[in-house]
Amino acid sequence: MAHPPTLKQLRYLCAVAEQKHFGNAAKLCNISQSTLSAAITELEENLGVSLIERSNKRVLLTPTGEQITDLSHTILSEVDDLMAVCKASQEPFSGSMRLGVIPTIAPFLLPKLLNRLRKQHPKFRLFIKEDLSKNLVDSLHKGELDVLCLALPYPVEGAESCHLFYDEFLLAYQNNKQMDALESVGTKDLRGQELLLLEDGHCLREHALEACKLRTSDISIPYQATSLNTIVQMVANDIGMTLLPKMSIDAKILSGTKIKTKPFIEKRVRRAIGLTWRKKNPRREEFQQLATFIQDFYL
Amino acid sequence: MAHPPTLKQLRYLCAVAEQKHFGNAAKLCNISQSTLSAAITELEENLGVSLIERSNKRVLLTPTGEQITDLSHTILSEVDDLMAVCKASQEPFSGSMRLGVIPTIAPFLLPKLLNRLRKQHPKFRLFIKEDLSKNLVDSLHKGELDVLCLALPYPVEGAESCHLFYDEFLLAYQNNKQMDALESVGTKDLRGQELLLLEDGHCLREHALEACKLRTSDISIPYQATSLNTIVQMVANDIGMTLLPKMSIDAKILSGTKIKTKPFIEKRVRRAIGLTWRKKNPRREEFQQLATFIQDFYL
DNA sequence: GATGTGCCATCGAAAAAACCGATTGTCAAA
DNA sequence: TTTGACAATCGGTTTTTTCGATGGCACATC
Fold this sequence. Notes:
The structure is a homodimer.
Chain A: H1 7-19, H2 22-29, H3 33-47, E1 52-54, E2 59-61, H4 63-90, E3 96-101, H5 106-120, E4 125-130, H6 133-142, E5 147-152, E6 159-173, H7 177-181, E7 195-198, H8 203-211, E8 224-225, H9 228-236, E9 241-245, H10 246-250, E10 260-263, E11 270-278, H11 284-298
Parallel strand pairs in A: 3-4, 3-5, 7-8, 7-9
Antiparallel strand pairs in A: 1-2, 5-11, 6-9, 6-10, 6-11
Helix pairs in contact in A: 1-2, 1-3, 1-4, 2-3
The structure holds a DNA duplex.
């Protein structure tokens, strides 16, 4: 009695909690249903609590069961981290990692990154999730992702970041005599203008305005697009002008269009790109190595 | 290959890391030396890294070994928490808990608390450590303590607190015509006076001064004592006056002396007493129950 | 340089456990 | 009432764990 649980038991518990079905959970764990059933029973005996309510029609968790399942998840993911640390220490870039990237970075950074990783570190498995910063941060906290590539600053509780590089904003337009006439463009020239921007939720929106020291009230925003490519198409059809991050231009987002770009005369009209991870995550070293790898080809 | 470690293996690893000696570590784990040796070897094979450098003269950890030992410690303590949650859920106040208490609270709260706990919850095992706030917080973070009883506010990273009760400060002196003459004492009357206070490191010092809206420069501190009892002895020998928390007076710290006390006319000349624990600790419910238990007899 | 001592690794056997397939028991739907 | 779906239980087999004994190594002692 009062035996500590084994990791195996905790894994089985999580499987049952997920499947709500002993047979399916057993398959998931590659064991027989009888073994699973016995294991759960033993776990409950050892812990002295009932975790799962079984009826032959449905399986559900007791309140304590929910709580223990949550704890088991964090314990198991820490064990995973432990193994990842070992793998990385025996050979860097040989394990796997789950990276979240925002939509205004992903298409411009990933092709090159994944390509180089495959060539230089073929053993390294990088899983990518592309989503808005907010959702990525949620996934990070849930333990579904290990590290995020975000535009910083972005507030993430209990997290640690490292800077990768700066990404300048350029003014992009097609036909605009007013802009053509200007020797050089300053952010002040944007006041009162119409700007095509991404819809709410994309941090690029706020970062671009902030970098230009603009408030929403300083400009008018006629349309909110869901992707930079859409915006580029609109600019190419002379619907308005916009701010584009340099990395998107480097990635040839403008190819096939007659869109002109102008840098701003001010310095630091830019966003910062960085990596972010849970402060508690023991794989910090690997993240730093990944950061260096990105900088090596991006800078 | 690439088998996940078992909790048993992690426990054994921690034991070896602690003892730096296979034989002793084996005794600690109640297993034979051969079993321990084999287990560590297997762990290293499964993880694919060398964790321990063995020579027949001394055992020491590789850098990765250090890292993995740290991770193992946190994992194991989370498993302990998991078991504690189960124990508490099958019957409140039936497990064990490690409580840190500061020296200006411990002697006045613990006798009553421990006594009542023993009577009402005989199965509950409360381990006490008495130390300065700073050291308790260190122990909390290291996982050596589960919960602290502190005077709040006290900054603790990644922690959560709950308020227990307020503890008034009273002026304590023996012979002092100036104070006798006053109808009522205000904190302003302390300016320029000599006050006996605890030495640096005791948060009572800062909390008392702050409650009286005094700075160190507003008064003179002729002597710094190591305990409230020392201060009381000094006051009883007419060396000066001091500020005493009401809970110490309730606990009869003045018995056998002729020391007089006067409350301040201002309200809120007091410190707040509360419980603090790691935000991540899943035993929050138990801590809240303990808080309620304390309030039930203290309020 | 022989001997002893302390230490960890290894070996083989015995004990313990984990696991499986088959079966049973239970409940609800048909 | 029968059937079907599901989890629990049983008995036997395989795998794992554990132990005591032994081996081998490095150092200290004489």
